[in-house]
């Protein structure tokens, strides 16, 4: 049965639920990545029985389908995207907050667009990787909010598809595997993963330098979940996103998280 937004809202105010449900923090490079990539898991998969806190990394944005991504529009567009995230957090049932790093087009200018999706680009000298790694270490140890424990699991975008912002976050997290006390899983980035062959997926995961195994975290992705995501993010829905959703349904896709071998907690998975 699909867990409705109303039901999840009620769960949040149940003291029994608060004590028993594990806390999971999901690192979302941009405002839309959590519902796009793990929306089915939030509704009736592995995340449906967890207290989910999303932390957005690149909270300053100029990217919409509606206007060119000029830097002077960053304030109103970031505000609009926060409003979309409020809608999604209510629809899918998670808490969220956003860090304030500027996304790729703001850091590098709009002309950077064609270079933004490059799975082979060398990021080893990127100063943002240690910066984000330090922030992730703090995120791993602080309570999600008052009267809650720190997260029992962190999920991070795997960087599949080569979006530079996703890859920076994935690389930062990969460097922490084995160095922090809680497990880290890498979730498949939608819509990008839909377009990858098995060989491309393996090659891109290998760039993280960690031996990983996949875990299914949702039933088959459903049209109603996709419709909910489209409704929450009108500013982001270009054909690339909608076509990926159609392909996912046609292929019977499920959402997956890749864990360092043997580290998926037994309470997590479908
Ligand atoms: Zn993204």
What descriptive keywords fit this protein?
270 residues, alpha/beta, Rossmann fold, seven-stranded mixed sheet, 15% strand, globular, binds zinc ion
CATH topology: Rossmann fold
- Spatially, the strands of the biggest sheet line up as 3-2-1-4-5-7-6
Mean pLDDT value? 91
Uncertain runs are: none
Order of helices and strands: HHEHEHEHHEHEHEHHE
Going by CATH, what is the homologous superfamily?
Answer: LmbE-like
What portion of the residues fall into strands of 2 or more residues?
Answer: 15-25%
Multimer state:
single chain
Chemical compounds bound to the protein? zinc ion
Strand count:
7
Q: Structural class, from secondary structure content?
A: alpha/beta
Number of helices: 10
Helix content: 25-40%
Whole-number tally of structural domains: 1
CATH class: Alpha Beta
Gross CATH architecture: 3-Layer(aba) Sandwich
List the helices and strands and how they pair.
Elements: H1 5-12, H2 15-20, E1 23-28, H3 33-44, E2 51-56, H4 74-92, E3 95-98, H5 104-108, H6 128-141, E4 153-157, H7 164-174, E5 184-187, H8 198-206, E6 212-220, H9 223-232, H10 239-251, E7 254-260
Parallel strand pairs: 1-2, 1-4, 2-3, 4-5
Antiparallel strand pairs: 5-7, 6-7
Helix pairs in contact: 6-7
The site of zinc ion has 5 residues, from loops.
